[in-house]
What we know:
Layout: E1 5-8, H1 12-23, E2 28-32, H2 35-40, E3 44-47, H3 49-57, E4 68-69, E5 72-77, E6 85-89, H4 90-93, E7 99-102, H5 103-115, E8 120-124, E9 128-134, E10 137-142, E11 146-150, E12 152-155, H6 162-167, E13 171-187, E14 194-200, E15 203-211, E16 214-222, H7 236-243, E17 251-253, E18 258-267, E19 271-272, E20 275-277, E21 283-284, H8 292-309, H9 321-346, H10 350-364, H11 367-378
Parallel strand pairs: 1-2, 1-12, 2-8, 5-14, 12-20
Antiparallel strand pairs: 3-7, 4-7, 5-6, 9-10, 10-11, 13-16, 13-17, 13-18, 14-15, 15-16, 18-21, 19-20
Amino acid sequence: MKADVIIVGAGIIGMSLALSLSKSNKKIIIIEKNLLNSLKINRVYSISEKTKSFYKEINIWDNIDEVNNLESMNIYYRNFNPKNLLSFSEKINKVKIGYIAQSKNISNSLLEKIKTDKNISLLDNYKINDIENTSEGIKININDCECIEARYLFSCEGSKSSIKRKLLEKNIYDDYNSKALVFNIKHSIENNNIAYQIFLKTGPVAFLPISKNYFSMVVSIKNKYSEKKIFKEENIADFIKDITNNKFGNIKLINKPISFNLKGFDSENYKVGNILFVGDSAHSVHPLAGMGLNLGISDIIEIVNITNSNSLSFNNKNFYSKYARKQKIINKQARRQLKFIEKIYSMDNKLAESIIKNTMSAIQKSGFVKKKIIEHANNNLSFF
Length: 384
């Protein structure tokens, strides 16, 4: 089998990249080890305007079910007190705040589109055994017998990329010395499509409104606080009621919390010969701003821009070198921005707290500054 591009991983990033390259008239083969299991995973994502525009461009956006338009984003410092509030409002600031979507709905929309795309072949339940990465292109052996040839291979497998392990490629890590609890809650008082972030001493807590009476929760916990009883499954609902001053009424967990260690990273290399790393295969950031998926989409946008505008031949070994250089810089900057925010808000002394409160108060009074902050977030934290 032959193609222009092999994509490893049929997750959101892999399928999004495939559909984008198909619009550039490239032939794509997607290799997936277990599509059914991949589709069973359901996460909640914050979507920026830049990401929305991308999905409109590939005719996906209008087919994604249950997208929630955020009316506001409210950020609190230390407690749920209006004096410690920094608010961003679509109505007041005259700019879109963002959207909330479930991964299963994004994936299903992408998959339905892929099934009708003649440029894309999706091979499910396949394992890559050998990779030949030469100046002429890529050859891979799958399931011990079949050979696939292409000019490039894109690893879109997530942070545990099998391709990266095969190549012995390394990551440059940031250890946040924290863990995260991810779960959904049902609450009796409506959330009015407002997202919340509370920066506690124990770590930031994010509330993403899935619908009017449901939040997806991301509770980040510094390791030194992780054994506190308030973070046990049986106590977490009371913890949320307490830190929100019971604003959302009765709270009930609707699934078991998933726990994982928080680490940010950048791949040491985004390009190795004719193999490129994209999305979570290349980088990861702190979840406090919900930028993970958006940064992956920015990777794809850059890849497509290069594909459509590059003066070099598609077969030139340097064809995607600009992607590897530029996105590594952009994603490193994004990781540093979020690390800085997390570090500043985690400082535990009265002087720092006073400075942060005064700064938030000043920003709260400035519609211009708030609009610029929203625009920066909607550009997926890129200064370019």
